[in-house]
Design goal:
Layout: H1 9-14, E1 19-23, E2 29-33, E3 36-43, E4 47-52, E5 60-64, E6 69-73, H2 81-107
Antiparallel strand pairs: 1-2, 2-3, 3-4, 4-5, 5-6
Length: 108
């Protein structure tokens, strides 16, 4: 698992990703940065907190209330290919066992 990190404002200015905003199909705000999509998680009196839309991903973005980039937090952490395959195989096995179990209960 990748370690989380915080990027300071000076580092962001040096390698600032271009960000853009659109609304989702449900009219919720989405932020795009570095080919990733973030959804608005929380708004405080000075900051908007965005979280990556990939399940299990730790990456976050903070913007000011005028949508100016303040900082990025964490790394994108989707499951590696091998782990995704292992998860899929485990789910398929559980589904097969569940169907087999239900068939046994119905017939008894």
């Amino acid at each position: 698992m990748g370690e989380a990190f915080v990027t300071s404002t000076s580092e962001i200015q040096a390698k600032s990703p271009s960000i853009s905003f659109i609304n989702s199909n449900k009219e919720k705000p989405l932020l795009f940065a570095d080919d990733y999509t973030f959804k608005l998680n929380k708004i405080t009196s000075s900051t908007k907190y965005w979280i990556c839309t990939i399940n299990g991903c730790a990456a976050k973005v903070h913007t000011d209330l005028n949508n100016g980039l303040m900082k990025t937090v964490g790394n994108h952490s989707p499951l590696p290919g091998k782990e995704k395959l292992e998860v899929r195989e485990a789910r398929e096995k559980m589904t097969h066992l569940k169907k087999h179990f239900l068939t046994l209960n119905i017939s008894t």
